[in-house]
Amino acid sequence: MPRCPALTLLNREHSRFCFIQHLRRAMKIKNYSLPRNRSIEMMSTTISTNLNCNMACKHCYIQPELLRIKEYIDEPTYRRCVEVIIESFHLDESVSYLHLDVLGGEATLMPYEFWERNLPWTLDRVSELNDAGIQTEFTFCSNLMWRDERYLDLLRAHRHHPYMDIAISFEGPESGRFGRNMAIFPKFLSRIEALGDCNMLNLVLIMGQGIINLGPQYIIDTFVKRGITDVTCDMVFPWGSGKAYFDAHQPLYADVAKFIADLTDLGKPYGLTVDHLDDMQKSLRTLSRSQNTLNDAYEYHWDQKGNLSLNPNQTGTEAVLPHVGLHAWDANAALKIVWGNSSELDNKLSFEHDFCRDCKYLQACNSGWYPHKGLDAGVVQKYMTDDTQAGFSCPGFYELWEREAVHNLDPQGVTRYGDERRVRKAKRLACASGAESAMRESSYADDYESFFDAVKGAVSVEVFDGDLFGLTPRQRLWFYDRIGCLVRFEGGVSSFADASSIIAHVVAGNYHTIEVAGEQVRLFCDANPKHSLTSYIADALNVVRYWPNAPILIADGYARHGNSGLEVSFKFEDLLIWVARHKELLEGGAAFATNHHVRLTPASYDYMQRIKASAYRVTRTMQSGSK
Q1: Same domain flag for 354 and 421
Q2: Cα–Cα distances in angstroms (integers) from residue 539 to residues 390, 544, 572, in the given order
Q3: Residues 343 and 424 both lie in one domain
Q4: Whole domain around residue 271: which residue ranges?
Q5: Source organism's superkingdom (predicted)?
Q6: Is the pLDDT of residue 13 over 60?
Q7: How would DSSP label each residue in 225-267?
Q8: pLDDT in tens, 227-279
């Protein structure tokens, strides 16, 4: 579908303005270059078929003036958006799950005939992906206040589809959603009952203080006894109308965590699944993705015009847009999604709250609720309990991780899962080791379109230390890593401004293709002997050097070593394995003074025995693959 050049130019100029505004709202957390693995593997996507809504909820993240816009997506653009989503998923070798939401505004304000045709069409695409072995889920978001009664029959017609659910939100009375004195709430409940034996109703609780005050028993009596079997608990978004709602009604994180735990326990006799705890249980077996905190690898969004934003929960003047505007019908649209998303991915993988750095669950939790990750530290602290008797609570609900870890945390499962990831990377590196001369970024610095045409066929790319089309070098590395390109660093990575963070991601196993030579790591550490990353690497090297003959302390738990306080456990598994594999290249570095005072507990000694085999397996894979 051709587009007006003038409109394209206008969209791009608007995108540049919004990108500059976004930079002013950059992460308030300082990058620490923490060498710990992060695991996020889901591509979550949304399409707003329209923005108008027949309700006026105070908690809504959409800026209120947008809800009055009566514009509707056309069918070719909707289908093109779905197709580009699938294309972008196939481009990224690092994601293994796909989730597609459709929403508004209110999606049932679309002409009925649109969804009569496109709901089954979308479900066919989702089924095709699942049949091909790609775990894919589809969610139809609605407030159930449809005006066309035919929607009930349409939704019921697909009520047993294995990959579809209907998301319906519920908030406390202070949100104003159901009118004065909750006047239209009975109608809402009647429509839940009318949907009857749908196996796919997902009740999304917006965890404002009003929900906390109602209590979990209210949810059981009002919804679960009406057949709801799946509940998601979302915290308040501090955007749009929700900004004022957040300031007035955001509860303590500890109160939200207790609500989730109590609701789970109360719901067991009814077969209720509370997604947050269910997801934690699964994540703890491997410390892999936790998908209920909006820390997915992708959270991008198509609007009713087919324009892309990078976060569906920030709209209007708060929208996070790619540096150059992107429309679903643009050339190389799928590739440009992966490129544009790199800034958001970097926020998720390069930053954490300071209280997260030593947390055993960081790898899966990734600092908890992403919309609160950019808040001022003082605001976050305001909602964290300071009652020592009540225990520690945070935006990731530490106490819930502790509760579920008792029966679900499996350190050996963490290593097995990590070994699979490390071997996959080793195979990619070995297969690409004979790559021809690298494509040079600098050759395309002034030609946006030609850059994407060239990178499609590139096996290796030489990166320069400077911004390119709105992305820093560290942000761009996520793009190359996601599409499987090897990277060379112009002048060596140790000379880059973001060297510490890039090296931290390498040694932590956060890249799936990108590697850095041990000599470059040694150069960085020698030049920065007092850097926190140097301390971690130096302490890991001493553990690798001396663990076989280290004295064993009679103590429970894992040992710590050195100035960094490095815990000899799964917390730093990738770092320890990387150092073990590059030990000879690191030896002799001025920053790596010998420290014979390595002491291990039985748990740490057994752990080092286990990952010795892991390091050997990766090395053998590299050697056999390069022959």
Answers
A1: no
A2: 34, 9, 11
A3: no
A4: 5-29+42-382
A5: Bacteria
A6: no
A7: GGT--EEEEEPPP-STTHHHHHHHHPPPHHHHHHHHHHHHHHH
A8: 999 999 999 999 998 999 999 999 999 999 999 999 999 999 999 999 999 99
